[in-house]
Amino acid sequence: MNSCCSNIRIVATSVRGVLHRRNNIPCQDYFKHAQGKNFVAVVSDGAGSAKFSKIGAKTACETLCDLLKNAPWNKIRDAVIHAVRISREKLCRHRFNKFKNEQGLADFSATIIGMVYYKGKGLFFHIGDGAGIAFLDDEHEQFIASRPENGLFACETFFYTQQAWLENLRFLNFENAKSVFLMSDGVSNFSFSPDFMKIEKGFTSPINTYLINEKNKQKALRALNNTLDMPKAQRINSDDKTLVWIRLAK
């Protein structure tokens, strides 16, 4: 099957947070992308307090990519809902789910931020924190952002493993984007102003400009890793950091 998205470029990485390094805990973020009739990319951030959150993150990313890459665009929102539901069903049957039902899903808690793209049209789908940014120009003046969503407290967010996952699932359409950023919450506070209403150009603009111009993927990936792993970045936010950069325009 020929992909409509063969010219898309992707540079993506996950960097383990400094606290996880100190405590010998693996990175609990996960990301994946896939191409079929559609292009799909997903980032999932496993909750630090959940025993098997990395499994929850991986299951969401793999299932969403698998089920959305060839889903009909005119039913894409329904396809996202179906894919999240299938992810939950997989975790209900997982060998580490001690109850073998939804009661055991809390051990797999993870957020979701993803996008699906088809012929110039894009859709963000989002549960919890993390963020997505679609830049509509290369001057970083015009953008559409799917911002983090927290609960009553700043440290509280929503997970696709919760009972109320469907009411916390958000969609945001965009068109004719040039570049897209998907990120876990370990990166989102670098990318926005403190109130998340404005883009922090001192972070996003240099990354986007550099990755547009650097055609050597290994050099681009190394630079992105170094940026996310800088001591200053680790001091500001000690959480795992995942950033997926997607270039849609030629």
Describe the structure.
The protein is of the alpha+beta class and 250 residues long. It has one domain (9-247): PPM-type phosphatase domain (Phosphatase 2c, domain 1, 4-Layer Sandwich), CATH 3.60.40.10. The protein is 30% helix and 25% strand. It has seven helices and ten strands. It has helices at residues 18-22, 53-68, 76-92, 185-191, 201-213, 217-228, 231-236, and strands spanning 9-15, 29-35, 39-45, 112-118, 121-127, 131-135, 143-146, 170-175, 179-183, 241-247. The strands form two sheets. Strands 1-10-9-6-7 form a five-stranded antiparallel β-sheet. It has a five-stranded antiparallel β-sheet with strand order 2-3-4-5-8, with helices on one face. The protein is globular, with a radius of gyration of 17 Å.
Blueprint (SSEs and pairs):
Layout: E1 9-15, H1 18-22, E2 29-35, E3 39-45, H2 53-68, H3 76-92, E4 112-118, E5 121-127, E6 131-135, E7 143-146, E8 170-175, E9 179-183, H4 185-191, H5 201-213, H6 217-228, H7 231-236, E10 241-247
Antiparallel strand pairs: 1-10, 2-3, 3-4, 4-5, 5-8, 6-7, 6-9, 9-10
Helix pairs in contact: 2-3
Largest sheet report: 5 strands, antiparallel
CATH topology annotation: Phosphatase 2c, domain 1
Q: For the terminal residues, how far apart are their CA atoms?
A: 22 Å
Task: Count every helix, treating DSSP H or I runs of 4 or more residues as helices.
Answer: 7
Query: So what's the CATH class?
Result: Alpha Beta
Structural descriptors:
alpha+beta, Phosphatase 2c, domain 1, 10 strands, 30% helix
